[in-house]
Amino acid sequence: MRCALACTGVSLLVSLCHGQTALPPDRTVDLNEGYRNKIEVTGLFDYNANTVYNELPLAILRGGYLPHDLRQRSSQQLHARRNRIGQVLQARVQWTGAACWGKQQRWRPLVSVAHHVQSGLSFTADAYDLAFFGNASFQGRTAILGPSGYTQVRYQTIGAGLTDAHSGSYVRLDLVRGGSLSVVEVDWATLFTGIDGQVLRTNVLGNYSASDTAGRDIGRHNGLGAALSGRWSFRIRPDQKVQFNADLEDLGMVVWNDRSVRIAKDTTIRYEGLRVNDLFALDAMIVNEATVLDTFGLRYSHGEIRRMLPFHASLEAVIPIAVRWRLSVQAEHRHLPGYLPQATTHLSRTIGQRTMVGASVSYGGFGGLRAGLAVKHRLGEHLLVCLSSPQVPAFLLPRARGAGLLLGINLGF
Amino acid sequence: MYFAPYMQYVGSMRTVAFAGIIFLLLQGCRKEDGPARWDVDVALPLLTTRLTIGDLVPDSLHAVGSDGTVTLVYASELFAVDLDTLLGLPDTTFSYAYAMPLVGNDQFSLPAGFPVISQNNLVRFALPQVQLTRLDIRSGDLHVDMRNMINSTVLGQFGIPTAQFPDGANTLSVAVGPGSPGQPALGTVTRDLAGTRLDLRGPTFDQVNSLATNVAANLDPEGSGALVTNQDSVVVQVRYNNLVAAYARGYFGTSTITRTDQESRLTLFDRFVGGDLDLDQVSMRVHVENGVGMDIQVRLSSFQAYNSRTGAVVDMQHAIMQGPINLDRAVDHGNGFAPSQYQRVLDNTNSNLDAFIENLPDRVRYGVEIQLNPLGDISNGNDFLYYESRLAADLEMEVPLTLIAADLTLEQFSKPDLPGDAEHPGIEQGTLHLFADNGFPFAARILLDLVDEEGNVLSTVPVEGSVQAGHIGTDGLVNAPVRSTVHAPLNSAQVALLYGEARLRTRVAFDTDPQYGHVRVLDTYAMDIQVTVDGTYMVNGQ
After folding, report:
1. Whether A62 and B530 lie within 8 Å, measured CB to CB
2. Which domain covers residue B433, as residue numbers?
3. ipTM
């Protein structure tokens, strides 16, 4: 499943486009604003982590046995708490039509269809070691498993709005189709393992909720909602050269249907083994999922879940610093566990009339310091291709952290 | 048309290079080795249980005294003689035939209503040695078949004057259409005899096994008569089928039922597969019940405790083996009976019963000779039996659990339900830990073997440690449990065997401390057990 998602994402990168380029707009390089129709296809994949090396998720993606030393290398890098991993996979097709509002020639209609898969994870070092090495090494002591959080959401949007072709400002209202949701919020959790495994004692304060567990395939419809997206671009300096972009994407909510499941635990569980009535009839003892759920009191309750989408907000300033050079500074946040506000500085330069290149340094988000490159190139007068990566070292060093790629194709006609 | 401007770039080197990079990325995603899997070392509690005397001996097989002492109580049927053996009633057929007394080609015209047959008969059931004067039927039926070769409808009647059907009647009627010598007509009538009483003394009430009957057949009075020849006849056939007696009276004869090499299962010690058991006291009641109204003499020709696992046989030595057991006849109350009883108690003062039991028999072998009416017809033909009458012998054993055990071994086979399969095992190796708080007055050694379907040992799991006996006070009773730990490491080869066809054979050998002699087992004794595992589990291994 993970491979299928990843391959799907990489495939999308080949073929999709997006209006949100990593490089600032440039009237020389970008398509002429005068085209009556514009189709933008974008594919975005962004993975990041602050402690776990890329080699681990890549190995998980490839499948097969994960060597002990590979797992150990990431373990040695972990912080006691607040280790973060997350990813965003997004594909969007957007059509922008000709102005049709009489005197308001700058405002043009847009229609957009998008697919989103986003996840974020925040975890402790003990939780990692428990998952990848087991609890045997914790005999006689307590593993700290919280605070931790995990959200994975998959949804599709279709929406319509208006865009100012001149400034890039837009507003769009989307109908949201919920595909799947998994949320774990652990405020506090510990696991004590007795010597020789005589006892497992866990204290948990947390909850888990998920969309209908009966089906999570990509075509599944498990919820419905709405979201608002928009950008406000404006220039404030007297000479109008510094541009500010305030972005908000997918601010909205999904109501997941009544087949959704939820469990909230504020409890201490002491487990010393399944209670057996007849030691001489062990073969007749039935240990199945139901037995385990009953033993640990993990039965779900069913009902609707209302949950906000993992919206994304950013504020960017684009400052021209020379004839062909621009500097942009951006602060952004994404509503996902483990995501910290991310700051990005971007330096770009146009080369000739058709090409712009740029380099970026960012810090925050799911990870730490990242160095990226971006390029966009206009092919003829009708086609603009942009390609960027927020973390170039990922392509060169197996032990880098984070990776990403954005591919956009703009077609004007 | 709109795509024409950029189609020119498709063939460029840059496009080809980019496509190549993407292809390599996609190749990197292929999961040729299946989903990611990794090994984790887990330490988990598996199960907890409390072992009581009720787990070792089912509740139905033990009793608890007021002082808490436990006594094994076991009852088993030794032998039984059923009704069929005592009184078999075979299916019996009687025929009544009538042919026209004409010579050569003579013909004779019979008028309508002419009586073709009108006979009174006395039939006798073939019951060797048995002389019944009365038989009440519990179940069975009577078939009357009539075959008619006369060219007229014949109306037949079969009557049993000394019988009484439940509805008060004693006659059956049957009508058969016209037939011919070449193509006789057939008619059948069946009567359920349940509840029927038969007087088998005949018309003069001085005979046995005899039944007075009459058969009649007339041409249909509503018909036109018939022209008959010497080929024409009427045959009536009467069959008594599947007769089961509800009550029988008479003289049942003198006969002997001999049964040799009989075996009766004894399940009391089925869980024990070896070792020695020394019991302080034992007793066994032999109980014989005679529900039949005749004198019976029983001789036990052999009585052995047979342990099929060891092949050991112990012969019972007791006076009961020397002479016959004389059983008085039951008493007939008219609508029921009172059986006679015989009981004899065997114990370790008048027999070798302790050795008999300590052999841990799973079978009791015996030979028996049962003589019916050994003194002849002393009841003057008043032997009786009811359907419920039985001749049966039972054993009732009582074994107070005051014992000395030496390697007394319990055996259990199990097939652990491990995660994954042989090709993709979820578990690689591990160590089982057993923690026991033993409140029983005997120590236990655990032996673990991996065996095949035939019980052949494939591998032995080394077991470190043993379960110590509870602490015994000066009164000979356990006053405090003792905690012990046992470890059993299973290597990867042994785990692989468990993923195959191998089963886990667990043997627990119990020993009492010789210095205490016979130790008493109380109902309150128990052993708290916890089993944990410390092993390597392969995540996604399956």
Report:
1. no
2. 5-69+404-540
3. 0.83
